[in-house]
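Renewal narrative, Specific Aim 1. Our central claim is that a sequence can be written position by position from structural information alone. The example that follows is taken directly from our test logs and has not been curated for this report. It begins with the structure tokens describing the chain, in the order in which they were read.
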């Protein structure tokens, strides 16, 4: 086991939150729903910077190349976090939007179920 610095261990540090206009939705795969998914309002986007984590000390430091990403945000128990970290997150939809195609939902659910086995 290495206790040295591991530049591949990324911690995303939130720099900013930008609210989404009304109507944006987050879709979550949900086999218990007739449509195969559920939705919730999308609160906004997170702008995040990549930091490296030293597994030995737990210290995090900004990466030298200034890697930044913008991701959809979800609200979980009053905390805004990247939607991708939320169980069953599938995608974000901007208004106006069409409901997902049932065949696409079935395909995504099959992949989701394989990952849970």
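The sequence written for that structure reads:
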């Amino acid at each position: 086991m290495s206790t040295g610095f591991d530049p591949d261990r990324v911690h995303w540090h939130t720099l900013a939150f930008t609210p989404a206009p009304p109507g944006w939705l987050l879709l979550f795969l949900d086999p218990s729903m007739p449509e195969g998914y559920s939705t919730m309002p999308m609160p906004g986007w997170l702008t995040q910077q990549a930091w490296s984590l030293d597994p030995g000390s737990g210290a995090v430091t900004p990466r030298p190349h200034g890697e930044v990403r913008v991701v959809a945000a979800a609200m979980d128990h009053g905390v805004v976090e990247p939607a991708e970290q939320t169980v069953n997150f599938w995608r974000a939809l901007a208004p106006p939007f069409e409901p997902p195609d049932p065949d696409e939902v079935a395909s995504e659910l099959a992949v989701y179920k394989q990952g849970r086995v």
